[in-house]
């Protein structure tokens, strides 16, 4: 499929062929230690290379967490750049987890960094924060569209602290989280097989039936594994929208390393469990 096909179409194809799973690449210092690596640039490089080599041809989506690379400065960014290129070359989709959000004119620069096809860190999608107002994301929405990329907008996050912002109710009676979902539904209207503008909705949140999750776009669902949610929880949390869920597992897979076979088995097990849960829904 052409790299300039819309992200939503490329994502649907990837999940259908490789299985519905996003593996997060989060090189925590504690994971480097558990793998017998130092918490330095060589450790970061070895860890990242091992994950890419083990999983790039197997898993549908990867979500490198930028902070774990940024903390090593420019050499960390170089490791991230290489990983993004290698994952994409092997047919994986990359969601850059950088959670960017700023006034529109600055947002345009963040968008150029991650969503312009000629940028060194071009990624298939980017996580963004809408809490300077959804409209502030417009430059990213536009550039993503031009480049066949997508966004994942923080709507209902997996952490308990998120509720004080996301469940706050506006004058019109809708919560902030529901309002973000509404913006995304409008963005994705008419797109097939689904739109390119996704929401981040935690798998840890329990029954979400009071929210309209039918945004005709992907729902990135972190929280499986280390944060306590399981693939079997997904139908209860997401209801009919479960078919658009992209479940993310980071530590739950990464802790199986450094052995490549063990990493592949862990990812395959999560993908199978998700498939079974979704098919039964
Ligand atoms: O946007 C995200 O990826 C994200 C949103 C959210 O609500 N909760 C959440 O955990 N995440 C990210 O998802 C990953 C979860 O990692 P594990 O808990 O190790 O599976 C981390 O990279 C978090 O930054």
Please provide a written account of the structure.
The chain has 281 residues and is of the alpha/beta class. It has one domain: Aldolase class I (TIM Barrel, Alpha-Beta Barrel), CATH 3.20.20.70. The protein is built from 12 helices and 8 strands. It has helices at residues 7-18, 29-34, 41-55, 67-70, 73-89, 104-115, 138-147, 163-166, 176-188, 234-238, 251-254, 260-280, and strands at 22-25, 61-64, 93-100, 125-128, 150-156, 197-201, 219-221, 245-249. The protein has an 8-stranded parallel barrel with strand order 1-2-3-4-5-6-7-8, surrounded by 6 helices. Helix 7 (138-147) links the parallel strand 4 and strand 5. Helix 6 packs parallel to helix 7. It is globular and about 55 Å long. The two termini are 29 Å apart.
Write a short abstract of this structure:
By secondary structure, this protein is an alpha/beta fold. 44% of the residues lie in helices and 14% in strands.
Number of strands: 8
How are strands sequenced across the largest beta sheet? Answer: 1-2-3-4-5-6-7-8
Strand content: 5-15%
Q: Radius of gyration over alpha carbons? A: 18 Å
What is the structural class? alpha/beta
Give the CATH architecture: Alpha-Beta Barrel
Our count of helices gives 12
Let me know the CATH homologous superfamily.
Aldolase class I
Measured distance between first and last alpha carbons: 29 Å
């Amino acid at each position: 499929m052409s790299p300039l096909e819309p992200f939503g179409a490329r994502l649907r194809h990837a999940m259908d062929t490789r299985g519905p799973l996003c593996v997060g690449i989060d090189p925590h210092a504690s994971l480097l230690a558990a793998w017998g690596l130092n918490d330095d640039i060589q450790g970061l490089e070895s860890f990242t290379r091992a994950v890419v080599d083990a999983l790039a041809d197997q898993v549908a989506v990867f979500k490198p967490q930028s902070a774990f690379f940024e903390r090593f400065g420019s050499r960390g960014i170089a490791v991230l750049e290489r990983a993004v290129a290698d994952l994409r070359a092997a047919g994986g989709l990359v969601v850059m987890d950088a959670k960017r959000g700023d006034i529109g004119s600055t947002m345009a620069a963040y968008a150029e960094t991650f969503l312009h096809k000629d940028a060194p860190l071009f990624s298939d999608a980017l996580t963004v924060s809408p809490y300077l107002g959804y409209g502030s994301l417009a430059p990213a929405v536009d550039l993503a569209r031009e480049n066949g990329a997508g966004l994942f907008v923080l709507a209902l996050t997996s952490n308990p602290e998120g509720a004080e912002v996301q469940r706050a109710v506006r004058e019109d009676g809708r919560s902030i989280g529901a309002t973000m979902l509404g913006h995304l539904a409008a963005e994705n209207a008419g797109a097939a097989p689904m739109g390119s503008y996704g929401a981040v909705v935690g798998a840890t949140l329990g029954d979400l039936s009071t929210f309209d999750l039918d945004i005709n776009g992907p729902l990135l669902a972190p929280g499986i594994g280390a944060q306590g949610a399981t693939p079997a929880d997904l139908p209860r949390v997401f209801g009919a929208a479960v078919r658009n869920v992209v479940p993310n597992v980071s530590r739950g897979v990464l802790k199986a390393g450094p052995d490549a076979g063990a990493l592949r088995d862990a990812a395959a097990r999560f993908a199978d469990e998700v498939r079974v849960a979704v098919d039964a829904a």
